[in-house]
Structures are given as C-alpha cells and as structure tokens.
Amino acid sequence: MKKILFTLFVSVCSMCVSAQEVTDSMSIDDVMDACISMQEALENNDAAALKKAAEALRETQTTAFTSLRCKDDTISSLNGHFVFNDVFVDSLVVGANPYDNADDINRSTIHRGQMTNGSKLIKTCMVKAGQSTKYTFASRGRQELGIVAEPGGLITTRIHVTNTSGLNEWHNDTKNPNGTRRYKTAFDLPSDKRNTVELEVINKSGKDISFVVISN
Q1: Rounded Cα distance, 136 and 65, in Å
Q2: CA separation (Å) from 133 to 55, 57, 110?
Q3: Do 161 and 169 contact (CB within 8 A), yes or no?
Q4: pLDDT digit string (tens) for 129-185?
Q5: Average pLDDT, the chain
Q6: Are strands 182-188 and 209-215 parallel, antiparallel or unpaired?
Q7: What angle do CA 204, 210, 215 make, to 5 degrees?
Q8: Beta partners for 62?
Q9: Could you tell me if 150 and 162 are in contact, meaning their C-beta atoms sit under 8 angstroms apart?
Q10: What are 93-97's contacts with CB under 8 Å, separation 24+?
Q11: Would you call 157 helix, strand, or coil by DSSP?
C-alpha cells in the first residue's frame, strides 16, 4: 500500500510540474512581454523603452478581443488612463497627451483590430478603486490568459469556467491576495464543447486603473 501511495504521489507531483512548465511558457508571452515593457517604461519615464515596447507589440500581430464582454455596471471611461496599444504609445512618445482622449484611441484601435488576422487577442479595460469587474467570453481547448495593470495598479483575479455539461472549474490567483502588477495562467478546457469563462479582476490599489487582458 505504501508503494502504491508513493507512486501516486510521484505521479501527481509530475503532473503539477508539467502544468507549471506549460504555464511558464505560453504562446501569448510575446504580447505579455511587450505590455510589461510598456508598464516598466512608464514607471521609469523611459521614452526610448516605451517606443521600443510599442514596436514589439506591433510585431505580435494581435487582434481586438471583441468577444470579451463586461457583465456588470463598473465600466467607466478610459480617459485619464493608459491604453495598451501602439497608437496610444506613439502619441505619448511624440509629446502629445493621449490620456485625454483614451476612449477615442481605444475605439479606433478596436475597429482596426477587427480587420487583422492576429491569433492573439488583446483588450484594455478598467476597474474602479477597491472594486472588481467581471468579463465573460467563450473558449475551447487550451486557454491562456495574461493581465497587466497600468503603472501603480495592483490586481488579483478569479476565473470561473462552466459549460452546459456540468463543468464547474475555478482557476483563481491564490498567490497574490494583496494584488500583483501582472499575472498569467493557462488551463485546458473541453475542445468539443462551448465553455464560458468568467474573468473577475479585483482592484487592490487605491485608485481607478486600466488593465490589459491578453488571450490566445
């Protein structure tokens, strides 16, 4: 019996290690890295690094995450907040003030994104100080998610997945109860069914913040 239990323990540990290795390396990493570079360049007031990050994001060939829909009343204007896209950054780098018309820039890039063939999805959202916001989207198979907050923002996430066949899974961020500047995760879903993913982003900072959601 001890030998059986030990073998089972080793097998479970192996699966955990494998899952962690897959989570650590994702197809969305290039988009995630570009957004993190934007975050850090802003924090360091480094215009050259910010421009380089915008170029890196352009090269990832993302498309707008239009299927990501807010399901509560926390939506507010992005004006005054950072938008994670190259158009916003380009405007900032040349000395303009895109923060004042962040909504317009975000809408125009969403429309442009619908015209591309990028396989990686991206959308800038916002959440009010000390509150949470919930988004839903449909998914099948391997699901990767990344979230990066604008400078000064701290977030934690809860992810609930369901389907009509009784699937009921949680993939929450249990490592950062007090918030983190960025987070990514990956999990496997049934490929033969439509699954609904509910993403809850909780604002752990003391101010309204924008954040970007990245998906494969």
Answers
A1: 11
A2: 30, 25, 20
A3: yes
A4: 999 999 999 999 999 999 999 999 999 999 999 999 999 999 999 999 999 999 999
A5: 86
A6: unpaired
A7: 100
A8: 120
A9: no
A10: 93/47, 93/50, 93/51, 93/54
A11: strand
- How is residue 90 written in tokens? 């380009």
Q: Which amino acid is at 147?
A: I
Helix (H, G, I), strand (E, B) or coil at 1: coil
User: Quick one: pLDDT at residue 107?
Assistant: 86
Cβ–Cβ under 8 Å, residues 65 and 135 = no
**Structure tokens given for 93:** 């780098």
Per-residue pLDDT tens digits for 116-133? 455 899 999 999 999 999
Q: d(Cα 135, Cα 164) in Å, to the nearest integer?
A: 19
Q: Looking at per-residue confidence, does 75 or 188 come out higher?
A: 188
Structure tokens at 164: 């009509």
Q: Which two tokens stand for residue 56?
A: 């890196």
Upper half-sphere CA count for residue 81 (Cβ side, 13 Å): 24
Taking CA atoms, 163 is separated from 132, 190, 194, 197, in Å, by 23, 9, 7, 9
- Contact between 94 and 153 under an 8 Å Cβ cutoff? The reply is no
How many Å separate Cα 53 from the centre of its chain?
17
Q: With 0.90 as the threshold, say if the pTM is over it.
A: no
Amino acid at 177: P
Q: Which two tokens stand for residue 58?
A: 């352009």
The answer to whether 209 touches 203, Cβ cutoff 8 Å, is yes
